[in-house]
Amino acid sequence: MNSPENRKSTRFKGEIPIELNQGKGLTRDFSTEGIFFITDAPLAAGAPIEFIMFMDHSGLGPGMRLRCRGEVVRVEKVGERKGVAASISAFWSAA
Asked: 95: which strand partners?
């Protein structure tokens, strides 16, 4: 039986590079309220997190850097790497 979707905002699938203080990652899906990404960075559930998403304009000029702040919700093993789910509490354009 499928459980109903409890997310408050639409989730988008896509591989977008992100940069963390502790390393790099690649998104699997994201929304305005949360993100799931794959990384080697040493992160733990409950920890604050800040990262930059590199949004590409697909040849329409320079991309945008979106700085995000939130909290790590879950960390799970994904092959040899980690899958990290995090809430996003604030985001703004980064220079």
From this structure: none
